[in-house]
Amino acid sequence: MSEIDLCAQTITWGDQAYTVNLNHPWVRRVLSFAGVNGKPPATLLLGFETGSYTIEDVERILELGLIGAGVSEREADQLLNDHVRTKPIAENAGTAAAILFALYAGKPNADASA
Questions:
Q1: Residue 110 DSSP one-character state
Q2: For residue 29, what pLDDT is reported?
Q3: Which H or E element spans position 45?
Q4: 3-state class of 65 per DSSP?
Q5: How high is the pLDDT of residue 113?
Q6: Side-chain half-sphere of 14: how many Cα atoms within 13 Å?
Q7: How remote is the C-alpha of 2 from its chain's centroid?
Q8: Which helix (H) or strand (E) holds 16?
Q9: pLDDT in tens, 49-76
Q10: pTM to 2 decimals?
């Protein structure tokens, strides 16, 4: 990719860093058409803010973010098995919310001089 995507983020699970990105064209189409579990992204943001999110919301945002960054569906599913489905929900809910927020506002502190 020749341009830096301001919506891409890096998450760390264990000692491994992974890029996640909901701004990939395919992921944006999925979000536009089906949302996440039938909910539009803005509704999900409100849900994370108020604590009204589901396990499936957290997993799907992480999955779409990984796929949007180029991880295969099979590898994304394995990563979710290893780092999300075996952990308390709150451990990954904040990460999912930050990934979703980055779709709207970009990375926090991303070149404040622009």
A1: S
A2: 94
A3: helix 41-50
A4: helix
A5: 44
A6: 7
A7: 22
A8: strand 16-20
A9: 999 999 999 999 999 999 999 999 999 9
A10: 0.88
* Distance separating alpha carbons of residues 75 and 61, to the nearest angstrom: 15
Using CA atoms, how far apart are residues 54 and 104, in angstroms rounded to an integer?
Answer: 21
Least Cα distance to 5 among 45, 87, 72, 65 occurs for 65
Tell me how far apart the alpha carbons of residues 76 and 106 are, in angstroms, rounded to a whole number: 22
Which amino acid, 23?
A: N
Nearest alpha carbon to residue 80 among 90, 70, 66: 66
pLDDT of residue 84: 96
Do the Cβ atoms of 7 and 22 come closer than 8 Å?
A: yes
- Label residue 24 exposed, middle or buried (CB < 10 Å: 0-12, 13-18, 19+): buried
Map tokens 């701004």 to a residue: 23
Task: Tell me the average pLDDT of the chain.
Answer: 90
- Amino acid letter, residue 42: A
Predicted pLDDT of residue 112:
47
